[in-house]
Design a protein that fits this description.
Strand content: over 45%
Keywords: Membrane, Signal, Transmembrane, Transmembrane helix
Structural class: mainly beta
Number of helices: 3
CATH superfamily of the largest domain: Immunoglobulins
Pfam families: I-set (PF07679), Ig_2 (PF13895), Ig_3 (PF13927)
InterPro entries: ICAM_VCAM, Ig-like_dom, Ig-like_dom_sf, Ig-like_fold, Ig_I-set, Ig_sub, Ig_sub2
Protein name: Ig-like domain-containing protein
CATH topology of the largest domain: Immunoglobulin-like
GO molecular function: integrin binding
Radius of gyration: 74 Å
Distance between the termini: 178 Å
Amino acid sequence: MLEHTSLRDLFRILLPLLCFFHQMPGAENYIQIDPSSLVVRFGSPASANCSTNVTHNNMGWEASQGSIDKTFNVTLITWSVEQLDKWDIKPLCFINGEEQDMKSLTVTVYKPLDQVTLSTENHTMTEGSQYNLICEVLNVAPVYLLTVSWYKGGMLIKQENFSHENETKNPVNKTVTLQISPNRTDDGVQYSCEAELKLGPEGPQPPPKMKSDFLNITVHYGPEFSNCPGVVDLKEGTSLTGICDVTGNPFPHSTWKKDGSTIDPANPLKRTSAGMYEIIVRNIQKSLTVNVIYGPELSCGHSYTVREGNEFNPNCSVVGYPSYNMSWDKNGAVDFPLRMQKGDAGQYTLIVSNNVNFILHAVEINVLYQPSSISELHSANVSIGEDVVLKCASKGKPRPRYKWIYHHASNVQITDQDGVSLLHIKHAGGANIGTYLCIAYNDLGKQRQEVRVHVEGAEQECPLSLSSHHVLVEYGETVNVKCLSSVSNATLKWRFRDTEVNNDTLVIDSALDYLDWNLNATCYGHFVGLGGCSKDLNITIYKHPEKVSISIKNHSGPMIEGNSYTLQCDVQNTGPLELLTVNWNKVKGQTGNEDFIKPRILANESTTLTISPSRNDTSYSCSAELRLGEKNSHIIRSNPLYIEVHYKPTIWKNIPLVVPVFYGYSEKLYCNASGNPKPTITWFYKNKQTSGENLTVNEQGVYTCVADNSVGNDTKVISVVIEEDYLPLIAGFVALVVVIISVFFVSIYTIYYKNTKMGHYTVEGAKPKAQNGDVAQNGKNTTIPMKKIPNDSAILFLDARCELVLSPPELLVEYGASASVDCSTATPSTHFSMGWKVPQGVVHVMKDVQLITWKVETLMHWDIQPICFLNPLSTQCFVKLPVTVYKLPDRVSISIVGHEGPMIEGKQYELQCDVYNFAPVHLLTVNWYKGQHLVAKTSFSDSTKTPVNQSTRFHMSLNRDDDGVRYWCEAELKLSRTRAGAQTPFEVASQVLGLTVHYSPQVSSGVEIFNETTEDIVLNCTVTANPPPRYTWNSTNLGKEFNIGHPVLVLSSLSSGNYTCTASNGIGSVSKLFIVQAKPRGGNRTTFWAIVGPFVGLAVVMIVGYVLVKKRTIKK
């Protein structure tokens, strides 16, 4: 601790002492000369200051020029000369104090160079000799500050100074020598020397210097050979220039020879130029062997394609000199030939090398291989209406292409992407059931895999149809039946009578060698994806009867009513008999028919009918018909067989059994009877006998009428009763009662009129009752103003800062047409960008816009919903554009379901309307028209948007008024349902289907009575029917058919009687009875007036009473 304290104290003592001694003045410190040294050009002015900061007696300058004597009381004194003319001057500043102190001023006096020259003994030099270059610097001082620099071209090669000659300060001439030994490279080189006075920083800047002129030297050498080995390798196309160059100065001339011939070494060398050359220069000869390097000339492609499994050796070759080696590399050395596999594909490097060159050549080897086994393809079992996607994937090179083999349907679409094929089934149905074969193939091979799609709830379709499922072939004719398929280019064949016909048309020749009238044929088709399916055809060969005749078996002459007789119908040469029906007919309708089950050969056939004829039977006929359907219906009728039926008389039942006769009058009794032969009428009364149908009687008694013919007789007893005639008395009584009632009525009327003033009423003071204010004014109590909302734009408000407007708000466009919609916003400052999101017609996002348009030239999407979006400051908002894409139907057809030929009144039928290839379904309405009247509409709710075929049916029950009516259907796309504007619906109509309706005859009244007094009576039995009816007449007077085929019967006699008209066709028959009662003119009118008279009298009394009352009323 003590030791440390002593050291600190010692330091404190020594520090002030050191500072004191540092500040003590010395001779070199208290005399200052400024500047301390001078560089002055000879003859120029010069000056310097000498100062001190110590006390002195005097001070001054001692110099060979410009001395200053002692000067007192100054601290600064200046040495100065106007022209310095001393070469060696050293001014001295002195101070006289206790001692004299002094300090000298260094002065350098210089003179710039007058001239610098460079010379040599000989400008033409020989390589390898020594030569001196002389540089003379004239009149320069001081020489010890001189520096001489030697330059070869622009390069400094040597510097010399003369600092050792510092004693010489007067101007001198200085000679400097540079010894050189030039070589050929120095030929034409320029030498120079430069003299410079290095006067330091106090001297002028830049320092004085001078350069001599350039000295050009010429160096002679040679001749010499350079680059001339005994053997030289040169590239093809180059020359011998630069090989075995002969150099020298002056330049020597050389001659090249090859095989004794002079050549130009500048000519390009060819590969054939290799050999021995001679070079001759000034009788100097040199030999040279030249090898020509060429190549490598590589013959090798950049890409090769090889099939997998094939042995491959790249056909690569190389020529050149020196000889080359070839090797292959791909992640290591590869030796060819090589049996290629798919893993061997890639890039190979061909290495071509020799001792002078090295080449790399890239070769791409593609290994082609057939498609691999198909993956990711599986069978599918789905429900009806579901969507199905079948995926077929395979790897191969080149990339496999895909082919699907299946039963084509409109709801199947195939897309290929990224080496995979996808088969889409939309809304699977019966048409999609079957197998689906995917084939992946390329040029090297193919792979196939088959799967099956089963749709539950649907039945597999067979795409076969026949022009007719049942063919009728008339014996001796030829008929063609075509087998049709909805699949294009389908291979169809027929199997008929154990023979296959490889054609879609079956020719049926109804030759005699057919063993059967009923034949079957089958159309077969094998369809991709479905397998085989068939349709059966029923064939019936027929022959209409050649003749039909009718006869009575074992009888001739008239028939007796009630007896049995046998009729025989003979049908000649017809078949097949199992389709034969024999109808028995008589005038008033069918009496029976018979079907046959016989051997199927052409035959004659007979059938009998047992009849018990009635009195109205006039004729029988039979007809033969083959049951071939209405279209081929052909009835062969026999000639009518007229019969005469005898029957016993029958007296009419409407003859009264009791006939009253007024006393004093006579009455005629009628006894009408029918019978064949015509009966004779005989009256019996009181053993009296009178003939005739009418008998006039005036006596009471019993009268017997007997009708008699050859078959029998009938008797009727009529009682005649005599009565008094009270009719006049009754008539008088009635007239009296009428008079009494009239008088009573007039009296009552008069009394009532007086008491009640009948007919005088007043409405004075009457006020109409106000309408109840609560009445609803027929539903129009108030008128509510309604504001119509425009429908030409759609606005979607998502938030306060997001407003989008579409124009138009909805789009209705035909498939394949152009479409354009504007999307705008009213708030451009609050969003970053806006755009459209669409699968077709891409619109890029745009910034700082208020309107953006989506537009497509050809719309190719059925189900598309563009979205306009807006990116505001907060969150994204959007609006969807409803788009309806439609396609008009290709055609529309109407047909009758399951029926051909005329229709029958009262039966039910179906019409079918087919609409082909249209979209969308939900806009379709099928309108059914009867004539020009709309009778039904059918709409659809199916959401399918792609084109489909659609069918709908209409049920109808026909009557006779529908005969000739035309039906048609119309497909209407209700495009006006959308809000895209007032669109007119598109309509496509079918062809017109005319109906033929067969109906039976019909009459409005079954009985018509004629009470005629004239002589001409017209009975009109005309009825409407289709086909037109056949008319027959029957009469009780004639007892047989007459006037056949005529609907009108004109009677020219006054014969009373019943006349029956029958109208019949193939549908039915109807009869009408005409009752004709002819009466003579005149007769007793007593009864008539007895009844009518009282009513006439009553009418007269009432008229008189009314006139009297009216007059009385007027007077009042």
